[in-house]
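so my prof wants the structure for this chain in the tokens format not the other one, which i didnt know existed until like an hour ago. anyway here's the sequence
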Amino acid sequence: MKPMKSLCLFVFSCALWAQTAPAPPSPQTMPNLPDDAVIATFDDGTKFTMADFKAYYGVLPPQNQQMALKDRGEFLHQWAVLRKLSKMADAKKLAEQSPYKEAIDHARMQILVQAMINETLNEIVIEPTEIVKYYEANKNKYTQVKVKAIYIAYTDNPPAVSPAKGKKPLSEAEAKAKVDKLLAQIKSGADFVKLVKENSDDETSREKNGDFATLHFSDNIPDAFRSAVFNLKQGDVTEPLKQPNGFYVLRAEEVTTRKLAEVRDEIYNDLKNQRYGDWMAKFNRETTVEINPAFQAPTGK
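here's what i got, hopefully its the right format
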């Protein structure tokens, strides 16, 4: 039997109840009892109070928390079973034997590491003036650009003969030539929306007159898109942006900057994470270990 891998398994680790208990139809609420109220008495006479329940409840994953509140009697029964089994293991001094000793040490170390990380994060103070200063210095990060798009698709293996229905798929070179021609027309004053309707292969945006998305600097978008889009002024268009299966030409419809009030919490978290990252990097640099060369794996293996 493999040792338990995480703290979240200490309750409801008995598979039958965990697997058969249905998902709660709605969030459950905590019983309205004083902390010193005894909610269970185990068969060795130990009292389990409301305060005990709250303490252990706090370390459960959200799903297990709801299960504990939904079927409180079963939770307490499972707790009693786990408690009794662990006491039997203690009586046999299993915690002092391999591989249980090492598994317990490892789990304890993981929990304490997370506790230390939490403490470090809680001790980091970000002043309001830091948030304002960061915002003023990084306003480009809070720019959002609403864009329209023309998309010209291509395939690496276009058919030699045009299909009976629909238009012939383009090769990359043909798609590039087409998009360059469209871009020239746009720069000469052609109606962008008209070109979208007549040429774009992105059906979704074509049906919305080319409306593609409102892009934020922090969005998970290709670097080529980010650098092109966030240098646009309203009404500007990008050069063709190549993607694996097509080329995009994007036009900036609206360019705005999110207000400080909208991004204050985001900046606070960014600064806090940055400060934590600096602390961890310094901690890593200052942590040294002398390793026996004979233990190292051969290079390339």
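also thought this was worth mentioning. The mean pLDDT is 89.
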